[in-house]
Write a structure and sequence with these properties.
This protein is an alpha/beta fold. It is built from six helices and nine strands, in the order βββαβαβββααβαβα.
């Protein structure tokens, strides 16, 4: 493929149509979404078109191993875990991610896609459960949200809104109401680690009676905020 126009995606330049730049593949417990606590194979792809202020996976902006789609599916199969999440970075920044998602579904996996919502999700295999992480104001990347993705949400998908403060919460409340998100799919509100106490977010959620769930990063509670491969 040609060199990406966005310099943030420069590490992806030169990949063939069936190649992926993979940051890591490992088995763990799913840390977020309604699947939290379930055994899950994690496929983290390199590269992201965003630079969220509180990003906790900046190591995936560059580096990694070039792998063909079939090799990724084979490595996931060796982990013997039915549930698989493809994440990043921003996985949809790599064109071959669509083929990977389809191949994982064909292999019989339940497949989750963690995506920022800044790139179109309409071409994702409909069997995939999309977890769309629209960016709140504190991220510094709200302008990148592709609101056309709301119409592409299926009932089995999930919207995750990561919030750092009350301004973010009020933004989320307006978004949920204006886009009728809770009528489309499950909505999860998650606090930025170290910036917003989960209890505070829970109290706001209860007081405002939002049709959303509280989500916490289970993997960080178990293993801490900086450990990779969990």
């Amino acid at each position: 493929m040609d060199r990406p126009a966005d310099s943030r995606l420069a590490p992806l330049a030169g990949l063939a149509a069936d190649e992926l730049l993979v940051s890591e593949i490992f088995a763990s417990l799913q840390g977020e979404s309604t699947y939290a606590g379930a055994r899950c194979a994690m496929v983290r792809l390199t590269g992201c078109n965003l630079r969220c202020r509180w990003c906790d996976t900046a190591y995936a902006f560059a580096g990694g191993e070039v792998m063909r789609v079939a090799a990724v599916v084979e490595r996931v199969a060796a982990l013997a875990v039915p549930l698989v999440e493809v994440t990043g970075g921003e996985p949809l920044a790599q064109p071959a991610a669509l083929a990977l998602l389809r191949a994982l579904c064909d292999a019989g996996h339940t497949v989750l896609l963690e995506t920022s919502g800044s790139l179109p999700i309409g071409a994702v295999d409909p069997r995939v459960i999309k977890i769309v992480d629209f960016k709140a104001p504190s991220s510094g990347e709200t302008e990148a949200n592709d609101w056309g993705n709301v119409a592409a949400l299926a009932a089995h998908d999930q919207v995750k809104l990561v919030l750092a403060d009350r301004r973010d919460f009020d933004w989320a409340a307006r978004l949920i109401a204006e886009e009728r998100l809770a009528e489309r799919c499950v909505v999860l509100l998650s606090p930025v680690w170290g910036e917003l106490e989960p209890r505070t977010l829970a109290e706001w959620l209860l007081a405002e009676r939002l049709p959303a769930r509280l989500g916490v990063q289970l993997h960080k509670l178990l293993w801490g905020p900086s450990r990779r491969g969990v």
